[in-house]
Amino acid sequence: xxxxxxxxxxxxxxxxxxxxxxxxxxxxxxxxxxxxxxxxxxxxxxxxxxxxxxxxxxxxxxxxxxxxxxxxxxxxxxxxxxxxxxxxxxxxxxxxxxxxxxxxxxxxxxxxxxxxxxxxxxxxxxxxxxxxxxxxxxxxxxxxxxxxxxxxxxxxxxxxxxxxxxxxxxxxxxxxxxxxxxxxxxxxxxxxxxxxxxxxxxxxxxxxxxxxxxxxxxxxxxxxxxxxxxxxxxxxxxxxxxxxxxxxxxxxxxxxxxxxxxxxxxxxxxxxxxxxxxxxxxxxxxxxxxxxxxxxxxxxxxxxxxxxxxxxxxxxxxxxxxxxxxxxxxxxxxxxxxxxxxxxxxxxxxxxxxxxxxxxxxxxxxxxxxxxxxxxxxxxxxx
Length: 383
Prior knowledge:
Layout: H1 2-20, H2 23-57, H3 64-96, H4 125-142, H5 145-184, H6 187-220, H7 224-241, H8 248-257, H9 262-275, H10 278-293, H11 303-317, H12 326-339, H13 343-355, H14 357-382
């Protein structure tokens, strides 16, 4: 919750500086933003490589049937949630937002930074994703302990960088973006779109929670309302902690209260806390459509073009870092490489995502309970 307050403070500071501060002061903030952006975009491919490699290599090998069904359910839920969100957002968002010229990828900034340094990433996002699959699956198949240890240590280094530097610096980065927009005179149009998108994302979270528990109710022959009510302690715990991992003990007890067998609950709930991020996907897709609609040089793509992005996003979400903002950090590279987002658009995406991260996390862990119910029933019928 402190991160959300810092984000709000950063937005406020950026607007005030952009509107009222001397130009030199605003340019200092924009310089910090530009330097931080180089670190951020250099880190993203490394994050994807180490986290996904480590995540695939660490999957348990002796529970093949249960693991396969769990991953299939998690990926299917994420994929369908993303597609549903895109269809709704493509209809709703363009009618409620208007283009903001300052977000156009090709438009030069109103105020330039004092210092400009370019730090190219070691490799691009898609190369990182392919390398992660090759090494992750290879380590799982061959048991290469040295490579697994190296990937785990690389993951720990990137997580340390996220926790100690990148996440704490995000409010300052966002402040620079909003100072730039305030100086360009487009900030209030952007804020209006903020409110619309955040409200839509939370509504879609609850739509998805309701749909999954309706399916779970049909499968188990029980009341969806009662099943959802039993998961509410997990929802509100995640709302406060902004962490799926920190909510695991509560989620585990809620799933057992819903009648999930102990063996299935003990296996699936911790696993789903890592690999099932349907709520985060809903937010990322809805915010992406909003940012696209706010750019006069981009049109909302058809579902045939958006589907590869959602499918790839679902894979990346399987191993997103378990820190506040970790999901959007994983998605930044895809937004740039597959949807053509420029730096200002990516910064706005990060701000939009962080503003509701607690609601996305709460949706993730609540939906975990529905998937655990469906998987438990499926395992009982297959016995």
